[in-house]
Amino acid sequence: MTTTVTYPRYLSDDWHDPGRHFDVNSPATQTLVGKAADCGEAEARAAVDIAWRAFESWRAVNAFERSATLRRWHGLIMAHQEELGRLMALEMGKPIREGRAEAAYAAGFVEWYADEAKRVYGTWFPSHHQGKRLLAIKQPVGPAFAITPWNFPAAMLARKAAPALAAGCPMIVKPAKQTPFTAIKLAELWLEAGGPPGTLQVLPTSQPRPLTQVMMSDPRIRKVSFTGSTEVGKLLYAQAADTVKRLSLELGGHAPYLVFDDADLDGAVAQVVACKFRNAGQTCVCTNRVYVQDGLFEPFVERFTQAVEGLAVGDPLDDATDIGPLVDEAGLAKVVEHVDEALSKGASVATGGRATGGLYYAPTVLTNVTNEMAIMHDETFGPVAPVVRFEREEEAIEQANDTPFGLAAYLYTRDLGRAIRVSEALEYGLVGVNDGVPAAPYAPFGGVKESGIGREGGPWGIEEYLEIKYVSIAIG
Ligand code: SIN
């Protein structure tokens, strides 16, 4: 793999070079992918001034015109699908097939919000006064700041920026330091689509704290959207209080997958594999613990293990690859630590269970797992599936809900009553019934409990960027 990208500039009102850069290395080869602009406090302050000025003009642009700009952006993202997929493979090790799919997923958000821009409806509602007319209108909340994660560098940027831009809010994005290039490419395409300068700014940095501090303390930033760890989400929640910013937090999870005796075995295996091993298990909504009912346990473990052994581990740029590397040393260390601790407490390896060189970890299935093991509570963010036996539905629900997290949960059953009953009982923001990959641009995405606040996607996602203003008109 050769060095193929270098974007030493960042996008503010125009392209700028801060004169400081940081290296982005490929997790697959650990060689240099390119150098990114390293933005700091000064660039952040300038970005807020620019966003504030851009807000005045962007909010005044007709909704149909904003919609048309988003639609052109959608077309350009699709036209650059291959390039975006390749960038993700290079900078974060995502298998290229998944990278292409993610580019289309990102474009899906842009397309959805291109339409949604035209549907920001107000309400004219009755008053008990004969001489009054009452309105509730929706207006853009103001300049927004997004912190986007490395695991879905295109889709998470689009899921935040598209509704903001559709609503009339300029957006400043700080991409994860592992994945600045995908973000920069999307910003470049926004400009090419006719997006006015300053409406979408992308400021990569290797030192997120000083830049984020500027955004969190400036009262002109009216909305913050973050996808990442619960630990950082809690800090941002506290910091947002000072200037009472609107906040969306999409934080950690620990998703259970309940497979009942009545499940179709092949279907269940296929969905659990898709759910767990997508992006090498580096997905907030991927299952972290698989509970299988007694009667199906042995055949499930056998078939699931075979399926996992069939996953192709390799070069993210190769079309045949299912599983790429972990994103960095810290990511790999956590996987190793979780598996080793589980093994030291009595877990058994059905397949995998070892690092295989570089940042690669063999896709792993563990059995004989107990609640004392860290892997059952703490998000592993890697290609490891602990499988646990259960007997009764109530017991499975209780174990599934026994966590501070509440992002996604899954179940597999043929029984309609059970599907509804269990979905209602699971304390999660998203439930997949016989569906291991439920997220879509037009659906609400977000968690309960310590997995976050707010919803992204669909008609719910744009409300996060809108304020409601009540207008009372006395007509005499
Ligand atoms: C995430 O893991 O944060 C996003 C997953 C998705 O949207 O499918």
Structure description:
The chain is of the alpha/beta class and 476 residues long. The protein folds into two domains: 10-251 and 450-474, 3-Layer(aba) Sandwich (Aldehyde Dehydrogenase, Chain A, domain 1); 255-440, 3-Layer(aba) Sandwich (Aldehyde Dehydrogenase, Chain A, domain 2), CATH 3.40.309.10. It has 14 helices and 22 strands. The chain has helices at residues 41-58, 63-79, 81-92, 96-116, 155-167, 180-192, 208-217, 230-242, 265-277, 297-309, 329-344, 393-401, 416-425, 458-463, and strands at 10-11, 15-16, 21-25, 32-37, 123-125, 132-140, 144-148, 171-175, 200-202, 223-227, 246-250, 255-259, 287-293, 348-351, 355-357, 360-361, 364-367, 384-390, 408-412, 430-433, 452-453, 466-474. The strands form six sheets. A seven-stranded mixed β-sheet has the order 14-17-18-13-12-19-20, sandwiched between helices. Strands 9-8-7-10-11-21 form a six-stranded mixed β-sheet, with helices on both faces. Strand 15 (355-357) and strand 16 (360-361) form a beta hairpin. The radius of gyration is 23 Å and the shape is globular. The model has no long low-confidence stretch (mean pLDDT 97). The structure holds succinic acid (SIN). Succinic acid (SIN) binds at residues 151-152, 155, 227, 283-285, 439.
What labels describe this entry?
single chain, 476 residues, alpha/beta, Aldehyde Dehydrogenase, Chain A, domain 1, Aldehyde Dehydrogenase, Chain A, domain 2, 2 domains, seven-stranded mixed beta sheet, six-stranded mixed beta sheet, 22 strands, globular, binds succinic acid
